[in-house]
Amino acid sequence: MTISIDPQQTNNESLQPKGWLRYFSFSLDHKVIGIQYLVCGFLFYLIGGTLASAIRIELASPMSDFMPRDVYNQVLTLHGTIMIFLWIVPVVNGAFGNYLIPFYVGARDMAFPRLNAVAFWLIPPSGLMLVASYFVEGAAQAGWTAYPPLSITTPQSGQIIWILSVLLLGGSSIFGGINFIATIIKLRRPGLKLMQLPMYCWAMLGTSLLVVLSTPVLAGTLILLSFDIIANTGFFNPILGGNVVVYQHLFWFYSHPAVYIMVLPAFGLVSEILPVHSRKPLFGYTTMVFSIMGIVVLGLVVWAHHMFTSGTPPWMRLFFTIATAFIAVPTGIKFFNWVATLWGGKISINSAMLFSCGFIINFVFGGITGVALAQVPFDIHVHDTYFVVAHFHYIVYGGTVFIIFSSIYHWFPKVTGKMLNEKLGILHFVITFIGFNLCFAPQHWLGLNGMPRRVAEYDPQFQFVNQISSLGALLMAISTIPFLINIFLSVRIGKDSGDNPWNALTPEWLTSSPPPVENWEGEAPLVEEPYGYGKQFSEQK
Amino acid sequence: MLNKNIYLILIISLVFAISFWIGFNINLLPAEASINAPIYDELFKILFIIGLIIFIGMTLAVVYSLFKFRKRNDQIGDGIALEGNLSLEIVWTIIPSIIVLLIGLYSYNIYDRMGGMKELNHNHEMMSSSTEKIWAGISQTSDNEISKNNLSIEVSAMQFAFLFNYPKGKFISGELHVPVDQKVSMKMESKDVIHAFWVPEFRIKQDIIPGQPTVLNFTPTKVGKYPIICAELCGPYHGGMRASIIVEEESDYNDWFNNNKKTEVNL
Fold first, then answer.
1. Could you say which protein family the record assigns here (chain B) (predicted)?
2. Can you give the residue range of the structural domain that contains B99?
């Protein structure tokens, strides 16, 4: 375990462009790559959000009247794919992981800086390719799940471009995962023990294990699917003797762990944010570590709960019910620990804190509907309905996206040396929280009462509730405005933050803000107690 | 200290009372029209109440912490250096484990009462089901029951319609007619992509898969007309892929059946 300062790498750094140009270069600096991930992801979030708005406009009336039906299916496919593969996974793993992990382990960069840059630079072309497929022959229209035979029978070019794009993004994800595992295990500064690492490192270790174990399965599955489409093979094509349910097993073997790939890093980030702003140590560090690993192990054996109404035998349904419901235990432990972290603290009510608390409330709600959905008899009625749509948006938007915003408010001073405006931040939080709940809470009722998902038209009795939901979506769209204004204003005329505006104890704050190219002017500090609040009050102001 | 505990007990009782009141008084589900539906609603009620207790409890804890422990302007320094509490951790590992286990066992019981754990067997005289692999579905009553009383229907789904074949009458209908209080046994197969058969009022759903027949059994209990909805994305007109199930008195059903039987084919 040594600090790697590869001399060659250092030389390369001096050849890198300086200033804003470096964000458009093949930079090897983990901090530059982190920001590249974040900004690129946010641009795709805006595209995905525009598509979501289009869906909510279509659903404001019961008839299919806003766009052609096949375009509607393309829009929902692109919305799902972009939000998952180009916004949440790259940002919550790639952006924050790249920026923070080297600081947390006391390294000057990631273990494999070139692999890191390659992993990022796979994203923009594959994302653009995916969006551009709309202009070829129409984008993929089989949903982000791409179930055959529908994905085999819809226009081929869109589906093939979709597969290529997801394969590239999966490759990027695997490169990132390998890099994180290597960095956390091998690049720790001498004297830094595993159980002294900030919680986000553990979350990224668990997530990266899931990425490395499950993403290749998705890649293999999609390659077989592309053979079915272009070479007329019969892996999943029932006409040629293929089995469509096998595809679902393979797909969900990746795509359920993918939920944890989107959520575990958020669990890690919130564990960094809450102690700082409530001035208290993270409650129950050891149990938090074990519960992350518990979620990783259980997360790999629950995939068939997406298939309770497909062809699955009864014993399998029972096993997956019990396994899925038990994920609630380690997840619950984490939530109780976060509330216990708040308890008795000296809490600063700021944008980062509010988004984190919004995350706790939204995610608890999504977790409860998740335990209900794990029960086979419950799921049979609501599977593939708006109840499920509401549930997973509570997890990925109410959960992860809230934490992405919380993290941006928390680490913006680190990256830029400027503070974000708190008033605009709180306004952003209030509109997002109200809009989000207004958009998705009513969808539970829609699903229970008979509205299936992925439809462009629906029973007119659901119109009023759908309009409430669309109103919520409008608020969510509006909420980006104060956020963007805040970012642009603060970068230019924001108040200087100093090096450590929150008086935080985690290692990334123990250097200047923004940090120098190799993170520390001298030796990396040894932080044995990243959450030692109340014990050693930091004197820095 | 005593006062604090009394407040805590009061608040917890209030959360329980509110959750139970909402659980018993607010109905989020559509009408109950099959044997399955009341069983499902029983499970829903239990999950709803437990969920409300946890959700309201957690939300109160977060909001209370934000108010009670917010940093006042004149305050400096940190909160208490509390790093954990083993007995608390054990409590909130064991209690959720027990709740989750009990919910799992209870829903197993519900699923069993719905007939989900029974060996699947399509009681169809015209089929030699022994050679076919039937994959999934809900089978409501035991196979030993007099199978000749079951109404057997073959469902085929295609983009974007359901067709219901009544083998005994040798005719096909686009509308599903069934007599009330009689067990219906459906064998379903898709002609193209995956579809799903869903009747919200019956609380049942089963995918209809190309190349693999699936089975769905149900017993309607209430006369009326209910929507049959395709719940699996199946193409551009997926949202319009609907049919109706008409549950009628036995005499009405027989009239309809005999009328169609004569004409042989009715699309």
1. Belongs to the cytochrome c oxidase subunit 2 family.
2. 4-66+89-114
How confident is the model at residue A283, as a pLDDT? 93
- Residue A235, phi then psi, degrees to nearest 5: -65, -45
Cβ-Cβ contacts under 8 Å, A357 against chain B = 62, 66
Q: Per the domain annotation, does A485 fall within a domain?
A: yes
Q: Is the minimum CB–CB distance between A368 and chain B shorter than 8 Å?
A: yes
Question: Looking at the structure, do residues B169 and B233 belong to the same domain, yes or no?
Answer: yes
Whether the per-residue pLDDT at A4 is higher than 80: the answer is no
pLDDT digits (tens, 9 = 90+) for A166-201: 999 999 999 999 999 999 999 999 999 999 999 999
Between residues 419 and 478 of chain A, which touch chain B (CB distance below 8 Å)? 444-445, 448-450, 452-459
Domain count, chain A: 1
Tell me the per-residue pLDDT of A65-94, one tens digit each, with 9 for 90 and over: 999 999 999 999 999 999 999 999 999 999
* CB-nearest partner of A328 from B80, B89, B100: B100
Chain B hits for A328, CB-CB cut-off 8 Å, are: 96, 100
Q: Which of A64, A150, A235, A327 to mutate to test the interface with B (most CBs of B within 10 A)?
A: A150
pLDDT (mean) for B241-261: 92
Classify burial at B170, counting beta carbons within 10 Å of its beta carbon; exposed 0-12, middle 13-18, buried 19 or more: exposed
Per-residue pLDDT band for B146 (boundaries 50, 70, 90) equals very low
- Give tens-digit pLDDT for A272-300: 999 999 999 999 999 999 999 999 999 99
Reduced to 3 states, what is the DSSP secondary structure of residue B94? helix
The complex's ipTM works out to 0.91
**Gap between the Cα atoms of A278 and A502, Å rounded:** 10
Starting from the edge strand earliest in sequence, which strands make up the sheet with B171-173, in order? B171-173, B161-166, B151-158, B184-190, B214-218
Whether residues B230 and A452 touch (CB distance < 8 A) is answered with yes
Based on the fold, state whether residues B149 and B184 are members of the same structural domain. Answer: yes
Chain A contact probe: residue of B53, B59, B82 with most A CBs at under 10 A: B82
Q: Is position A15 within any domain?
A: no
Residue B103 to residue A325, Cβ atoms within 8 A: yes
